[in-house]
Predict the structure.
Amino acid sequence: MEATKLAANRLNGFWKGGVLLTVGIVLIGWLLNTPGGLLGKADAVGYAVCHRIDLRSFFLGDRQLPLCARCSGMYLGAVLGLIYQSVLSPRREGTPPRIVLVTLAAFTGAFILDGINSLLSFFPGDPSLYTPTNILRLFTGTGMGLALALVVYPAFNSTVWNNTSKQPAVQSLGSFSALVLLAVGVDLLVLLENPLLLYPLALISAAGVVLLLTTVYTMLWLIILKAERRYNRVSEILFPILGGFTVAIVQIGLLDALRFFLTGTWDGFHLG
């Protein structure tokens, strides 16, 4: 029995060591092959998921933000939504009330409509329904980010934790309205275009990409390994999270490499 336990502990230690080594290799490889500085790394994250068209982005002085206006709003909204739910209602996995779901569906519809309208403005004759603006892109992106957060958060809790509440994290229209007001406040901070505010917001939006991908891939790891709903403490899910983070960085790195191979530049697309 003792020999079996010792062998199991060694195997577990070997597995954890392999995870840490893999994380280190992947992360260092990505860091060494992407632009320097915090904003350079943020650019590389945005480069993997966003067109980064200059005219559809906000600027930090004369420097384009890592993500376009729509993606900036989406990932800022997602980060805000995840933090809000985790602070307000930890480990809840219930579905939000119907009125909240209807509102989230409206946010998603506005995101799709504004995206299609922006796309139409590229065509000859500009058949768009209305003049697209970065303000609309920011707000509709933020609404979509909130929708993503309210879907991902309960899904993560139901996949990871052994001890969850069946109550929704956002239980009422009042708590949801408070979240929306906070999101509007964040968007207004972006629109001030104050460098002291835009710099951290730019980094947070890029971090939101990594956070969302890591969350989704952590859930996938647990599902693949048939290890769902086994955990009671944050420390117990460290290695599944590291596994999800590694896959997220690999995805970002592969998309970075493909785009750089095709374009030969870390810049976004330039119009006009």
Remarks:
- The CA atoms of residues 94 and 168 lie 4 Å apart.
- The radius of gyration is 21 Å.
- The chain has a mean pLDDT of 91.
- The first strand starts at residue 59 and ends at 60.
